[in-house]
Amino acid sequence: MYTREQTISRMNALGRAECPFFFVISHDMGHNLLFEPSETEGERMAAFSLPLGTMGNQDGGPPLPERLRFIPSPHPVSRYAASFASVRNHLMRGDSYLLNLCVSTPVETNLTLRHLFRFARAPYRMLLGPDARISGVHGRGCVCFSPEPFVTVRGRSISTFPMKGTVPSATQEARRWLETDEKENRESATIVDLMRNDLSMVATGVRVKRYRYISPVETSKGPILQCSSEISGLLPENWRSRLGEILLKLLPAGSVTGAPKEATCRAIAEAEDMERGFYTGIFGFFNGRDLDSAVSIRFMEEDERGMVYKSGGGITVMSRMEEEYQEAVAKVYVPFDF
């Protein structure tokens, strides 16, 4: 485990040396992991799959059970209502104008973390086994099958892709709702503005290249639609030697916190009754020249009590508690067919 300061120093050194490495950074940036490719095997049970590269055994482990079981026990609506009331109070006071509220959902399943890593259809996947030296806080194992890139770097071009807006179906009617709903549009505008400002701290010529494009995401319950935007800029020529400094300056990710960041993070800590750990942090790969990273959403964790799925959604003053609760419940899925 590395602290925030150790992570920055180590990433800067590896970047300067153009040495490839994988990384996992927790939501609070205080419990972080770095892996060089030579460390892939052995008892670590860590694996990654990103467009720029993979680490660990991608095909190992047992086959899927003949009959799959995946039964969530939704977060009690009364507990969600209490958290919602807390964040709404902050929103009404003007402490925040968009806040990402997250919950944990116990899941009864015969799927293992390795099953989920191996078979989930997602462009960004991460697995950490239940080893206290490498896994989440208190030694929990976890798996992430994320559809959301955080930042990518190709050459000196840096891009970020904040995802805001989800509808639990893929019909034309659902698409039209996602395109026109005022609350969803305001969420996107807030986060795009936040991420554009964040990127401007480390890059020049920052601009919105694509605003609110809609993509399908496969789930065990059928396809859903999610809305994203693309923001890009130009990094300085020496960015690799400042890799850790640049990356952690952009954290925590705006799409899973809210705006303004500092006050919103305080409101989140007050409202949520769970520990985020690696959930809503980031993970990624630097191949010596370029970088891929993803937001750690679509996330399951395992401890001695069993499996827990962590999910959430953006809350504004226009939000209705019942609708936001249903969105958090709808996001408890795995992206492969049952």
Automatic annotation (TrEMBL):
Q: Which domain of life is it from?
A: Bacteria
* InterPro entries, A to Z: ADC_synthase (IPR005801), Anth_synth_I-like (IPR019999), Chorismate_C (IPR015890)
Q: Where is the Chorismate-utilising enzyme C-terminal domain?
A: 79-331
One GO MF term on file is: 4-amino-4-deoxychorismate synthase activity
Q: Please list the GO biological process terms of this entry.
A: L-tryptophan biosynthetic process
Fetch the NCBIfam families from UniProt: PRK07093.1
Q: What is this protein called?
A: Chorismate binding-like protein
Organism of origin: Akkermansia muciniphila (strain ATCC BAA-835 / DSM 22959 / JCM 33894 / BCRC 81048 / CCUG 64013 / CIP 107961 / Muc)
Native organism taxonomy: Bacteria, Pseudomonadati, Verrucomicrobiota, Verrucomicrobiia, Verrucomicrobiales
